[in-house]
């Protein structure tokens, strides 16, 4: 099994398959992005090999992220390969997703996280710098109609969308879905425009609790979210202390960026690069040995990882892997 120096078993991989995105969310990336060339990205064969090896080492779940994963032309074929080894889930912005939902359901990919930060079309355009609100809402409806396990990810931004916390919570009344409110993080790729942590997870919960009765649910092992049910609601809510980093002690995650960078912590630097090692001819055994060594050096929490990161966290989230 893959285990770090703090005796945490690593069983969950977040795999970014592209840095490209069809939105330009203000908290995620600059308005003008220079995306990578195709040769810089992990190939189909490299991703397939990596997942096969990691599954044999105890990785049980893989979440596909981007950028926007549905911009990658071979995504469905990749999902089929990965699903043969692990449980697969997808995080998407929903603009292109709706037509693919039946195929996802058929191949057994039932868990989809939908990034959605507002329920107003005009505000959506301001946040994303694009006009895609109708397409995203169509994807949400399509996911629910196909009985997918849907989680809406809402990044809570001071002075931008905090007036919608109650409206998002209301979505769980009739719909069997989860809404997760995420603390904003400093990953917009431009070093400015970050609203800080005025809306930390305690304030978010307090605000929602002014209108709704929140009852704590049992959180899954390794969960980043604090989960709550509301009496009479079909769905539930969760709050992710992404900036406060209260969940680090049970972290079971490994990240791989679109270019093969291995991150043992979102707030840390790349510990190694699997793309480069594979292209240098490393054997399966040597590759896994290098990954084990990287995981062994995993920091105790996001704060120590951030202190050790010389790049000072100015990367775009799309380059890291959402």
TrEMBL record:
Q: So what does this thing catalyse?
A: GTP + AH2 + S-adenosyl-L-methionine = (8S)-3',8-cyclo-7,8-dihydroguanosine 5'-triphosphate + 5'-deoxyadenosine + L-methionine + A + H(+)
Question: For this protein, what is the EC number?
Answer: 4.1.99.22
**Which residue numbers delimit the Radical SAM core domain?**
5-223
Necessary cofactors: [4Fe-4S] cluster
Gene Ontology molecular-function annotations: GTP 3',8'-cyclase activity
Keyword field: 4Fe-4S, GTP-binding, Iron, Iron-sulfur, Lyase, Metal-binding, Molybdenum cofactor biosynthesis, Nucleotide-binding, S-adenosyl-L-methionine
**InterPro entries xrefs:** Aldolase_TIM, Elp3/MiaA/NifB-like_rSAM, MoaA, MoaA-like, MoaA_NifB_PqqE_Fe-S-bd_CS, MoaA_twitch, MoCo_biosynth_MoaA/MoaC, rSAM
Q: What is any Pfam family matched here?
A: Mob_synth_C
What top-level branch of life does the organism fall under? Bacteria
**Signal peptide range in chain numbering:** none
Q: What is this protein called?
A: GTP 3',8-cyclase
Tell me which species this is from.
Answer: Chitinophaga chungangae
């Amino acid at each position: 099994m893959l285990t770090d120096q703090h005796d945490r078993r690593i069983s969950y991989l977040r795999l970014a398959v592209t840095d490209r995105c069809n939105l330009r969310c203000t908290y995620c990336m600059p308005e003008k992005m220079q995306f990578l060339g195709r040769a810089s990205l992990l190939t189909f064969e490299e991703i397939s090999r990596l997942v096969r090896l990691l599954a044999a080492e105890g990785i049980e779940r893989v979440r596909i992220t981007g950028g926007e994963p549905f911009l990658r032309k071979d995504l469905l074929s990749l999902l089929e390969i990965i699903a043969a080894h692990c449980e697969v889930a997808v995080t998407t912005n929903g603009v292109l997703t709706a037509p693919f939902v039946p195929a996802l359901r058929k191949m057994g990919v039932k868990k989809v996280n939908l990034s959605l930060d507002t329920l107003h079309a005009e505000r959506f355009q301001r946040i994303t710098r694009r006009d895609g609100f109708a397409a995203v809402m169509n994807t949400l409806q399509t996911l629910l109609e196909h009985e997918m396990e849907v989680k809406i990810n809402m990044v809570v931004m001071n002075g931008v969308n905090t007036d919608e916390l109650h409206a998002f919570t209301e979505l769980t009344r009739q719909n069997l879905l989860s809404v997760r409110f995420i603390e904003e993080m400093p990953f917009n790729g431009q070093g400015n425009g970050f609203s800080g942590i005025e809306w930390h997870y305690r304030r978010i919960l307090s605000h929602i609790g002014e209108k709704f009765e929140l009852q704590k649910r049992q959180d899954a092992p390794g969960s980043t979210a604090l989960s709550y049910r509301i009496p009479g609601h079909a769905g539930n809510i969760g709050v992710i202390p992404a900036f406060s980093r209260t969940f680090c002690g049970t972290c079971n995650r490994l990240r791989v960026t679109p270019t093969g960078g291995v991150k043992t912590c979102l707030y840390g630097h790349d510990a190694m690069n699997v793309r480069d090692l594979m292209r240098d001819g490393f054997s399966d055994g040597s590759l896994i040995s290098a990954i084990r060594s990287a995981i062994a050096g995993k920091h105790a929490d996001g704060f120590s990882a951030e202190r050790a990161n010389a790049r000072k966290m100015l990367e775009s989230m799309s380059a890291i892997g959402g």
